Amino acid sequence: MADLIPGLPEDMARECLLRVGFQHLPTARRVSRGWKAELESPSHHRSRRRHALLALAQARPPLAGSGPARKYAASGAGYSFRLVLHDPAAAAGDGGSWAPLPAPAHAPLARLPLFCQLAAVGEGGPAAKLLVLGGWDPETWAPTASVHVYDFLSGAWRRGADMPPPRRSFFACAAVGGKVFVAGGHDEEKNALRSAAAYDVEADAWTPLPDMARERDEPRGVCVGGRFVVVGGYPTVAQGRFAGSVEAFDPATSSWGPVQERVIEDGACPRTCWAAPDAAAAGSRMYMYMLRDGCVVARDAEGGGRWRTLACLPEDARGATTVAAIGDGRVVVLGAEQTVYVLSHNQATPSWTRVAAPLEFAGHVQAACCVQI
């Protein structure tokens, strides 16, 4: 068998391949049969230094008649959304690394659906994939049931099986145990839904799940303790009046647990709820973050399940709409106009670090998820 890299010992060559960035994996995989086999091997992914990237459904820069954004006007892209991967830990100046992903080939006009959901499966392994689910057609604003799957190793998109009816908007979504779960939202008549379904990415097949106990429009989905947890939402008769209750689906028993009341405050939008990185493991304590009253707060099983304040947001991040926990006691908060901050809270005094987002990656974020490659 030929050397992975001629002239280098195999262990050193493998170390070099461990340092290949996510954006270069498809190219590196085509260099040789040896590289392809190594990059696809489970041992490579077990050894790879794993840290979380953020996949963002982010608005392209708005068109402007003058100033730095003017150069984007010539593209005719308009105010649309695209996929961006952000690595806050990368040593690219003070702003980490930012890179656009290719648009799904089957999406209308090769643009992301508005209000789509993102989920990642196969994290930290050769089967790592990013999914774009549902949303609205960017031209007609009609709800879509489409599913698009991106393979990080091949650098290619494929069209997945459509979500089962009814066509839902603003639903809860999260990856649990290699499958993607959706629940709630509303149908095309604006009726809040109780229905749910699970998508097996490898089998490209959907399975209907038992209904939730309550209708939940605009809920938030997170993975906690190996369960699909649906936070908040509101019924048809209470448009926009969010409830603070939670329901959790256990894939092991294929059933929903009892409704937990007032996990978040009644009236609070659950959009910024985010599970801690270790919350996905079975047997883990319940642990979530969210933004509330201008602060990052956290909730776990200790202290009677109370929310505790970790840190108040910097003044220019008070309008942030996205929070993401990326491990090592770090929380990323994304706002508009290039306000991106990382909170380090696993120390005596929590501290904020501002991340410099390049102009072309300064757009509004409508959805996000963590990806480990």
TrEMBL record:
This is F-box domain-containing protein. Transmembrane segments: none annotated. Pfam families: F-box (PF00646), Kelch_KLHDC2_KLHL20_DRC7 (PF24681). One of its GO terms (biological process) is negative regulation of cytokinin-activated signaling pathway. Residues 6-41 form the F-box domain. InterPro entries: F-box-like_dom_sf, F-box_dom, Kelch-typ_b-propeller, Kelch_1, KMD1-4. Gene3D superfamilies: Kelch-type beta propeller.
